[in-house]
Specification:
The chain is an alpha/beta fold. The chain is built from four helices and eight strands, in the order E-E-E-H-H-E-E-E-H-H-E-E. The strands form three sheets. The chain has a three-stranded mixed beta sheet with strand order 3-5-4, with no helix packed on it. The model has no long low-confidence stretch (mean pLDDT 91).
């Protein structure tokens, strides 16, 4: 239901004698609209990767009832291919194209490809007992390398396997220049 709208929200208050408190009842007035069929995704701007490389397996099949969650999974898989290969600053513009008469929906996705991002600095914070070199030897990415989401996930896994830390949170931050990333752990 791509045209769903919440028209109104009604709030009713009633006092519950047995629990001695006010209780709210929220009533949502929803207009569903029509159920749409998915007619596909049109990619443009992608020169680095082919459509087959970007979406090897479609979660949302053409002709199926439109499902926002499955569409977002397909969109995330496109973004993941770029992010895994170091393209952190790419833009993704998603424009829905609805045919209200036929109840069909498709999406035009425009990829704005930019240069690869590189790791400028690896910054370790919140550590008071373990030496930095012990932490750094578990990180399979170094300063100057192309940013790689999988390598950062492997670093988190390696650090957690040491059983020295209660949590490891990677925070990529903008470096000193465009396409440079500081990795804060």
């Amino acid at each position: 239901y791509a045209d769903v709208n919440i028209l109104d929200v009604k709030i009713d208050t009633a006092y519950n004698e047995s629990k001695q408190r006010n209780e709210l009842t929220l009533t949502f007035i929803i207009q569903e609209g029509f159920q749409y069929k998915y007619t596909g995704m049109n990619l443009s701007g992608n020169e680095i990767f082919t459509e087959k490389e970007l979406i090897p397996i479609h979660k949302l099949k053409i002709g199926a009832t439109y499902n926002e969650t499955k569409f977002q999974e397909d969109l995330n898989s496109i973004q993941s291919v770029y992010y895994e290969n170091g393209y952190m600053s790419n833009g993704f513009e998603v424009i829905p194209v609805k045919d209200s008469d036929r109840h069909e929906i498709s999406f035009d996705v425009t990829v704005t490809e930019r240069e690869r991002s590189h790791i400028e600095n690896i910054i370790i914070k919140g550590n008071s007992k373990t030496k930095d070199y012990v932490i750094r030897r578990e990180i399979p990415i170094e300063e100057g390398d192309v940013f790689s989401r999988d390598k950062i996930i492997n670093a988190m896994r390696n650090l957690m396997n040491l059983q020295y830390f209660s949590s490891v949170i990677p925070e990529p931050q903008q470096g000193s220049e465009e396409n440079l990333v500081d990795l804060v752990l």
